[in-house]
Amino acid sequence: MAILIDGGYFLKRLPTVFKQADPADPESVAFALRRLIASHLKSHNRIEKLPHERALLYRSFFYDAKPYLGKEHRPVSGTAIDYARTAEATFRLALHEKLRRMSHMAVRLGEVRRERGWILREAVQKKLLKGQITVADLTDDDFTPGLRQKAVDMRIGTDIASLTLKRQVDTIILVAGDSDFVPASKLARREGVKVVLDPLWRNVAPELFEHIDGLRSGFPKPGTAAANQPENHEDVE
């Protein structure tokens, strides 16, 4: 089995599906990932019945992007901002390094590029067009940087194809939330590999069900008694 995790999606859903974790702490995020992986292995081993569920795992893959480390000037005040020193960049770099040290974990990184200038937030645009505010009222917080994540989805698709065509696995667990994986999933299923989607308790489009072999979320359903139980920090490596 291979477990492929869309890192950006996982981090976005983490506060909802695993409230015990601190999404800003690399150690806490890594622990949550180990819990997720262990859950899928235990579930699958109810069928395989191996002496230890870890024997099922070929490798886990975590897909993310290297943080943007450039320097810019804010659009209104003109003050300098060094993205390499931001809390987000510090967190991502520390998380990637921690995951590289995890057993049977591969970290696949795309990149974040500056593709546009500063972008006016949509809600602020509407106020501006309605005359509720003027250009003179705009502040730095009304803009977002024109950054775009590149090559992450491509790496997921490439790995699905490689794992399939090299016959390295017979089951792929995909932790993701959109339909970008569909072409690669079609290839895997045609070649006899089972594809199980873990959307982390987010609803998926009905048409996606024809492109997967199963749907299972590795964390307990949010709001249930099981989800609210405190986690003990046992070794789940």
Biggest sheet, open or closed, and with what strands and sense?
7 strands, mixed
Share in helix: 25-40%
Radius of gyration: 20 Å
> Which structural category fits the helices and strands?
alpha/beta
Unreliable residue runs: 232-237
Distance between the termini: 16 Å
Count of extended strands: 9
Question: Helix-strand pattern, N to C?
Answer: EHHEEEHEHEHEHEEH
Average pLDDT: 92
Kindly report the spatial arrangement of strands forming the biggest sheet.
6-5-2-1-7-8-9
Question: Could you provide a short overview of the structure?
Answer:
Helices cover 35% and strands 23% of the residues. It is of the alpha/beta class and 237 residues long. α5 (152-165) packs parallel to α6.
How would you sum up this structure, described in words?
- The chain has seven helices and nine strands, in the order E-H-H-E-E-E-H-E-H-E-H-E-H-E-E-H.
- By secondary structure, the protein is α/β, with parallel strands linked by helices.
- It has a seven-stranded mixed β-sheet with strand order 6-5-2-1-7-8-9, sandwiched between helices. A two-stranded antiparallel ribbon has the order 3-4.
- Helix 6 links the parallel strand 7 and strand 8 (194-198).
